[in-house]
């Protein structure tokens, strides 16, 4: 399952990343934010029509927004009992910063 297939509120573990689908700079930036195999990730919000815009995710204590094509390169697996609400929709406005960090 690809990361972009999760609904808002769902969490999963990163199983595999297709680094060859990302530029070197995109891959490096995602690694700096903790995007790596084995990391737990949660979908917080989605932007854009039909969920095709940026996806706000939480990895550890960091909240990051990534483009849909980046999320398409990330394969995740959900452990039994991790399914969250099946609510997906544009609940992030265009003024939301691309990358946020939490203290």
Which structural category do the helix and sheet elements fall into? mainly beta
- CATH class group: Mainly Beta
Kindly give the count of domains: 1
What share of residues are in beta strands? 25-35%
CATH fold category name: SH3 type barrels
Tell me the overall shape: globular
Number of strands: 7
Give the CA-CA distance, first to last residue.
30 Å
What CATH architecture would you give? Roll
Q: What is the makeup of the main sheet?
A: 7 strands, mixed
CATH superfamily: Ferrous iron transport protein A (FeoA)
List strands and helices in order, with pairings.
Layout: E1 11-17, H1 24-32, E2 40-47, E3 55-59, E4 62-66, H2 68-72, E5 74-77, E6 90-92, E7 99-101
Parallel strand pairs: 2-6
Antiparallel strand pairs: 1-2, 1-5, 2-3, 3-4, 4-7
Descriptive notes:
The protein has helices at 24-32, 68-72, and strands at 11-17, 40-47, 55-59, 62-66, 74-77, 90-92, 99-101. It has a single domain (3-101), classed as Ferrous iron transport protein A (FeoA) (SH3 type barrels, Roll). Helix content is 14%, strand content 34%. The model is unreliable at 84-98 (pLDDT under 50). The longest helix has 9 residues, at 24-32.
């Amino acid at each position: 399952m690809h990361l972009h297939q999760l609904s808002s509120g769902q969490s999963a573990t990163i199983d595999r990343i297709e680094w060859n689908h990302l530029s070197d700079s995109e891959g490096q930036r995602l690694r700096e934010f903790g995007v790596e195999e084995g990391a737990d990730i949660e979908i917080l919000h989605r932007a854009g029509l039909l969920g095709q815009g940026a996806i706000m995710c939480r990895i550890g204590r960091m909240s990051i927004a990534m483009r849909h094509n980046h999320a398409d390169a990330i394969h995740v697996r959900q452990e039994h009992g991790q399914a969250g609400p099946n609510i997906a929709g544009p609940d992030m406005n265009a003024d939301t910063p691309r990358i946020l960090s939490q203290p």
